[in-house]
Amino acid sequence: MQTLRNGLNFTLTTKLGDLDLLGEVVGGGDYHKLLPHTFIVEAFDEKFRCVDLPTLIKLKRAAGRPKDLEAIAELTALLEEKQR
Question: Please, are residues 78 and 60 in contact by the beta-carbon 8 Å criterion?
């Protein structure tokens, strides 16, 4: 439990896939700064906040990790399709 109290960001691997729990995001700041760029998703009888596509693209560019950079083209295509 001490690890959770002291930690800020966690990357977990679950049976359903990878899950990033981020207390602060490179290029985006903390929860309160990102809040205006989120929407609510309901799944598994719970409500979750997710960042919108333009913000997610910005965050992935700022992170600069290979897996993030690979996802940018696909996310940009999704955003363009959504805007049509």
Answer: no
pTM: 0.77
Tokens of 40: 């609510």
What sign does the dihedral 65-44-52-3 (CA atoms) show? negative
SS (H, E, C) 5-49: HHCCEEEEEECCEEEEEECEECCCEEHHHHHHHEEEEEECCEEEE
Pair of tokens at residue 65: 């990790």
CB 5 within 8 A of CB 23: no
At 50, is the secondary structure helix, strand, or coil? strand
pLDDT means over runs of 10, the chain (84 residues): 74 89 85 94 93 95 89 94 89
Pick the closest to residue 19 from 11, 8, 30 (CA basis).
11
